[in-house]
Amino acid sequence: MLSEQSGGIPLILLFDSYMRYIISRVFQLIPVLLLATIIVFVAGRLAPGDPALIKLGPRGGNDPAALAKVRQEMGLDKPMVTQYVLWLGDVLKGDFGVSLMNGVDTLKIVAGRIPASLELIAVSILIALLLASLLGVRAALKPGSLTDQTISSVATGLVSIPTFWVALLLLSVLAVRLRLLPASGYVPLRENAALNLKLIIMPAVSLALAEVGVFTRFIRSGMIEVLGSNYIRTARAKGLRRRRIYFVHAFKNILVTLVTVIGLEVGTLIGGTLLIEQIFGWSGIGWLLYQSIVNRDYSVLQCIVFLVVVAYVLINLIVDIVYVLVDPRVEL
Fold first, then answer.
1. How many other C-beta atoms can be found within 10 angstroms of the C-beta atom of residue 23?
2. Per-residue pLDDT for 129 more than 80?
3. Contact (CB, 8 A) for 120 and 282
4. Residues linked to residue 6 through DSSP beta bridges, in sequence order
5. How many Å apart are CA 255 and CA 233, to the nearest integer?
6. How far is residue 48's CA from residue 231's CA, in Å, rounded to a whole number?
7. Which of 165, 175, 211, 246 has the most CB atoms less than 10 A away?
8. Can you point out the beta strands (E) in 2-85?
9. Residues 181-195: tens digit of each pLDDT
10. Among 40, 39, 45, which residue's Cα sits nearest to residue 77?
């Protein structure tokens, strides 16, 4: 099999090129992640408040000896560079310390909130892609028409509307006035699928609407360009069904651009969950991040920020890899 040809290139050479590309991209990410650890650590140390005092409680300042002992145990009496090296060593082992509020392992706390945020982001992207695909393709069929202008205006409006305003509007109408959906809360999917679906509708739609505007504009512009290609004219001349021409032959050729946009917008959604999860009481990473800021739980805060940075970097890596796999014409 490895000796077969793929577009004039032996498969074994193509596989070797892919692996070299992936390895080179991974090595390029190492300095980025190292810089991220420095920023996360320094930001945590420069934040107002004394972690040792927070750990001891409000009366900890009355006992200087106990405060000095806790600072020594936490390594806060060492130089900043030494603190960073020790902290980085623990992070590489997966040890982010314990929560200053309850003494529970930090990584365990954060890991327990990740599924909720991943579910919310995934559902939001799915809703956005479904709506944007229909609107973008419909607008591209007749560029400049009333339908195209209307859809383009709606897409621009959706991008311009603040996410929190949409969230408050949905909450006011669907939960308070019409009482069609529960106002807030989070229930894991495995515990109660029906209730989980009811609870996720409003936060997911709140995040998705802005993405609908972004995806619609990219799909529209990409489809307009593709629909003017010769192979599309040939497909029409052969009598293929319109849906097959639009959603199979034409749509797959804008996947490269769309995959890139999706990867970038995932970062936007991660940031958007901070406010949306607070409004709807969705107990994910965003909700936990806010709570850690309010309670000055620096170990939890550093863990969340670092994992979010790593997630964003990995998403961009995956996008680059998918970009190459989707479009064989891309030079490795």
1. 10
2. yes
3. yes
4. 9
5. 20
6. 62
7. 211
8. 5-6, 9-10
9. 998 999 998 999 999
10. 45
Of 271 and 176, the structure prediction assigns the larger pLDDT to 176
DSSP annotation string for 70-126? HHHHTTTTS-HHHHHHHHHHHHHTT---B-TTT--BHHHHHHHHHHHHHHHHHHHHH
Q: Which residue in 275, 278, 258 sits closest to 319, CA to CA?
A: 258
Q: What is the dotted CATH code of the domain comprising 107-326?
A: 1.10.3720.10
What are the tens digits of pLDDT across the range 193-221? Answer: 999 999 999 999 999 998 999 999 999 99
The size of the chain, in residues, is 332
Distance of alpha carbon 134 from alpha carbon 148, whole angstroms: 12
d(CA 157, CA 143): 19
Residues near 315 by beta carbon (within 8 Å), at least 6 away in sequence: 263, 266, 267
Domain ranges of the chain: 5-92, 107-326
Percent of the chain with pLDDT over 70: 91
- Per-residue model confidence as pLDDT tens digits over 297-329: 888 988 998 888 888 888 888 887 777 776 655
Closest CA to 216 of 258, 244, 249: 258
How far apart (Å, rounded) are the C-alpha atoms in residues 74 and 54? 12
Q: Answer whether 77's CB lies under 8 Å from 71's CB.
A: yes
Average pLDDT, the chain: 84
Q: Angle at which helices 106-141 and 193-227 pack, to 10 degrees?
A: 40
Residue with tokens 């509020």: 101
The DSSP call for residue 251 is: G
What amino acid occupies position 107? L
Q: Count each helix (H run) and each strand (E run) in the chain, helices first.
A: 13, 2
